[in-house]
Specification:
alpha/beta, 11 helices, seven-stranded mixed beta sheet, binds zinc ion, about 350 residues, Nucleotidyltransferase, domain 5, binds 5'-O-[(R)-(carboxyoxy)(hydroxy)phosphoryl]adenosine
């Protein structure tokens, strides 16, 4: 089965071709530079940029995969959640193509797609989903827009355990980055600086670390960094003190994410932990999650860095699994769902 997939839920325009779990092409055009000038994603600009880029990106994916449109068996797109108009660009393109080709359209929940991206591994031919190795797991999805823990009891079976009640972890990285004066998005640069800093230089709050539920909160941590810098503005004049600050903030975020993830996995008696989303690129998170899983005996599946951030490959992989499982196609005129929750997605 060959699936063409579209992802335009936020600031990445992506088109992928997936065949039998194999990623034949995954082209991603990121708008980070465009939004960087404004310090965050500007929805209207994102929409226009998706419109401008979608066809060139689709052509590039088609060329890279070496397929013709008539060779497609299905077309998929993210239907939600995400920026309303941005979602519409990819979804309407996919629905129109499915209509013209008389092929099924599969509407995908963005976070459900993230749940399966850690199972896509590099192999000799490129990237391939290895669902033969699948195990029930607790999955951490952590990005600029979302932070959540999900129990994935089986393929296509999931239940949200908890999510952030305010800011996402990536938002916290980015807002702290802004306070320090780093370019948008601050996460990757903060990660780089943190690697040369002392994580014990300052103690920032670990919100909701010890609470029994699986929710997160990161806005208080960001505020405490703001107050810290108000009281110690001289820190920003010293390169090493900036690195120590970055390392201390990262340590707080990572400790909360790692501790809550392995605690949920132990409680649910799964043997496997997975993680995806842009913040999963963070080297501290990758290292600490690996150490905690090793210590507690969990198998860890981290999404490949290239598939941590938003991409259409994960949309195509999930769409193919749904078709193989006999799930019905989505209506060609199905509306996008900017506020779609993961528990509503079957
Ligand atoms: O998944 P993603 O591309 O988009 C959504 O937000 O949905 O994630 C982007 C987020 C940004 O907040 C960015 O700062 C963060 O992921 N990020 C990182 C790192 N790389 C990306 N945060 C911390 N360390 C990194 N290395
Ligand atoms: Zn995402």
């Amino acid at each position: 089965m060959t699936v063409l997939a579209f992802e335009t839920s936020c600031d990445e325009t992506s088109v992928a071709v997936v065949r039998e779990g194999c990623v034949l092409a995954n082209v991603v055009s990121s708008q980070i530079k465009l939004h960087g000038e404004y310090g965050g994603v500007v929805p209207e600009l994102a929409t226009r940029e998706h419109l401008r880029n979608l066809l060139p990106v689709a052509h590039a994916a088609q060329r890279a995969a070496g397929i013709s449109m008539s060779g497609l068996d299905a077309v998929a797109a993210t239907l939600g959640p995400g920026l309303p108009n941005a979602l519409m660009i990819g979804a309407r393109a996919a629905q129109s193509l499915a209509f013209a080709l008389r092929r099924p359209f599969i509407g995908i929940h963005h976070h459900e797609a993230h749940l399966y991206s850690p199972w896509v591994r590099p192999d000799l031919s490129g990237m391939r989903a290895d669902f033969g190795a699948f195990q029930p797991n607790v999955s951490l999805i952590v990005s600029g827009g979302h932070t959540m823990l999900v129990h994935v009891g089986g393929l296509l079976k999931h239940r949200v355990l908890g999510s952030t009640v305010d800011d996402a972890a990536g938002e916290c990285f980015d807002k702290v980055g802004k306070l320090i004066g780093l370019p948008y998005p601050g996460g990757p640069e903060l990660d780089r600086l943190a690697s040369q800093g002392n994580p014990r230089a300052h103690t920032f709050p670990r919100p909701m670390l010890r609470e029994a539920h699986d929710d997160f909160s990161f806005s208080g941590l960001k505020t405490s960094v703001r107050y810290f810098l108000r009281d110690h503005p001289e820190v920003l004049d010293d390169a090493q003190r900036i690195r120590d600050l970055c390392a201390s903030v990262q340590a707080a975020i990572v400790e909360v994410l790692v501790t809550k993830t392995v605690k949920a996995a132990a409680r649910l008696a799964v043997r496997c932990v997975t993680a995806s989303g842009g913040v999963t690129c963070n080297s501290g998170l990758r290292r600490e999650l690996a150490a905690a899983c090793e210590r507690d005996g969990f198998k860890l599946q981290l999404a490949e860095r290239a598939l941590c951030t938003d991409n259409a490959a994960m949309v195509g992989i999930l769409a193919e699994q749904k078709l193989l499982a006999g799930k019905p196609a989505t209506d060609l005129d199905a509306e996008t769902m900017p506020g779609w929750t993961l528990d509503q997605a079957a």
